[in-house]
Amino acid sequence: MAEMDEENIEEEEGTELELEALYRRYCVRLKHALFVSALCVTLVCSLALLCAVCVLHSNDISPQVTSIASLSVITFVLSIVLALALLPAAPEWEALALAGSVLVTVSLGAGTLMATRHAPLPLFAIILVS
């Protein structure tokens, strides 16, 4: 009887460990999927904004050089980070996610500070919070 109880306890502990490992893998995949989807949305929005600036100011584009350059750099950084995030080993590599997040935050913040003239600091704070 005591042997059966010990076997049941060992089986329950083994099942708990398997469930914990499954939960960790699920969390890693979910974080990666959210990161990639946020990168995709941000990339599409920055491309749309870049196209809008170029089309709306096509007759005299010289005053918008700073905005176009900063949007181009942001788009380039976002596309590089997205390409790296789509590598097969990317979900398990936490250093890549951290470096990508910091790089995207710095480029968006710097681009926002360079391109806007009207209250750039609250927008930078909103980008950092999200």
Explain what you see.
- The chain crosses the membrane at residues 33-56, 68-89, 95-115.
- The chain is mainly alpha-helical.
- Helix content is 83%, strand content 0%.
- The protein has one domain (2-129).
- α2 runs antiparallel to α3.
- The longest helix is centred in the first third of the chain and has 55 residues, at 2-56.
- The N and C termini lie far apart (56 Å).
- The model has no long low-confidence stretch (mean pLDDT 81).
Q: Structurally, how many domains make up the residues?
A: 1
H/E series = HHHH
Strand content: under 5%
What is the C-alpha radius of gyration, as a whole number of Å? 23 Å
The geometry reads as rod-shaped
Low-confidence stretches: none
N- to C-terminal separation? 56 Å
Strands, total number: 0
Kindly state the percentage of residues in helix: over 70%
Q: What can be said about the biggest beta sheet?
A: none
SS element count, helices: 4
| Oligomeric form | single chain
Transmembrane segments: 33-56, 68-89, 95-115
Protein name: Adenylate cyclase
Keywords: Membrane, Transmembrane, Transmembrane helix
